[in-house]
Amino acid sequence: MAKITFDGFDDYIKELTGLEVNVEAAIKEAVYPAAAMVIEEIKANTPVDSGDLQNAFYLKKFEDKEGYVYTKVDVWGYDEKGVPNMLKARALESGTSRMTKRPFIRPAVNRVKSAAEAEIGRNFDQIISRIFKKG
Amino acid sequence: MWDDLVAALTYTGLPFAHFGWSKAADMSACDHGVYAEDNEKALYANNAHAERVLEGTIDFYSREGTGAAKRNIEAALTLYKIPYRLNSIQYEEDTGFVHYEWVFEVLDRENVSAPMVDPDYEQFEDVTEELLYTHG
Predict the structure, then answer these.
(1) How many CB pairs under 8 A join A and B?
(2) 3-state SS track over chain A
């Protein structure tokens, strides 16, 4: 649904790769709280009618594609009238020729992006310092 | 700048409404577009906006099948140096419109603070020099 890419963490990954740790687990631990921040901001910015759409956002299971570990914000289910929540989210975000758009995902991501990036950096720092303490 | 965006859309010669989905509905018989700003990206300093960028979308609804309007709009945005990305292309089955959506950004110079002149700046500089002198 929403593809949000955070860059600039290569140095952390290199540092972790040099150590004998589970890099994938470390990345998940660092990224998950930030992804949760993003989804909470999106939910807070979602236009509320019945509340079905607000509750339809969730984080997909982390995947590892050729060393690129990621999660996605996705939408599931149907509202009480049987309309897919994904369709509602898309119609609200982009509008149609007959319906005014009410963008709520992109503005929410813009607002929270810096804070989420900072959170990932902080988490990586904590993970790396924890690993060094153990060693 | 905002004026550049308006000029770019005017340059296309296509009918556009600002925030006017109701006006757009009146135009629904023909190809038409709507543009609207919806959020900002800002750099804050001294408790004020130092730089501000307005982000928004341009939506164009077209039944013309060659994509000429799309190319026309993108060429105008490029000509007027408006950063944009094509966010989605959707087909509306009920109306037959192809819906193009671009996200644009424009620099907003009107609502930012005056160039930063900090009245304490000189004093701060003096203190720094003093510290440098004291601590080598």
Answers:
(1) 45
(2) CECCCCCCCHHHHHHHHHCCCCHHHHHHHHHHHHHHHHHHHHHHHCCCCCCCCHHHEEECCCEEECCEEECCEEECCECCCCCEHHHHHHHHHHCECCECCCCCHHHHHHHHHHHHHHHHHHHHHHHHHHHHHHC
